Predict the structure.
Amino acid sequence: MAAVNPGERFVVGGQTVLLLALYLFLYFPIFYIGYLSTMENSVWPFPPVFTGEWYGRLMIMSDFHTGLVNSLLIGVGTAVLSTLFATAAAIGILRYPLRRRGFVVVLFLAPLFIAQILIGISTLMFNRNVLGIPGNIESAIVANTTYSVSFAFLVILAQLVRYDWRFDEVAQVFGARPFRCFREVTFPNIWPAVLGAFIISFILGFNNFEITFYNVAAIPTLPTIAWGTLRHGIEPELYALATIVNALVFVLLFAIYLLIRVGALRLGVPDD
């Protein structure tokens, strides 16, 4: 067996340390909040005394129930619209001849580079003055879709660039109409990306504060409830709320990872 170069071993060890430090920097605050949510005294929990009291209080708060329902409505509505628009756009750009295709792609990605607070204010003015939609759940869904559709578009586009469009051409040769071709040929091959785009859009709409705050008026959502609580100090129930939301996001991100693996296998991409 060949000897390991000491210099190479040092480089690998250094990269490992940096990677661990990066993960610690990113995830320690999240796990620390989860730790505080189970502490009886969150100021300086030592010696630690575990309790589930804050979760119990959170579950009986009427504002929490209302905010959860409203956030779910915004998340699901945003996910549905973003996925529909992103799927149609990705297929249209890649499947059919289009002049200035790169410019169209840039337009779809433009919201990624705009501050969310600007998107919130501009969509508020547009929805109210042009569409006639006042500040409500529907206005928040439209505003969040404007931002989330870029992420959904990237997810679906990443899988469609490896899709063999000859499958669709064969189906159309045998008389399949465009919608049937999509339903029975295209969608079965790209459904992991479509579902992944749906999940990402749901997370963005469910957790968004800046865009939702300006478009939802006085209707409570989980982010606005958390912000309102912070104005009067950090309550222990807020740690429990943050832990529940973070756990939901981690579960959904793991589902996205599984969908990426499934999508790669369906398109014959080797598993590295």
Observations:
- The mean pLDDT is 84.
- The CA atoms of residues 171 and 177 lie 8 Å apart.
- The radius of gyration is 23 Å.
- The chain is about 75% helix and 0% strand.
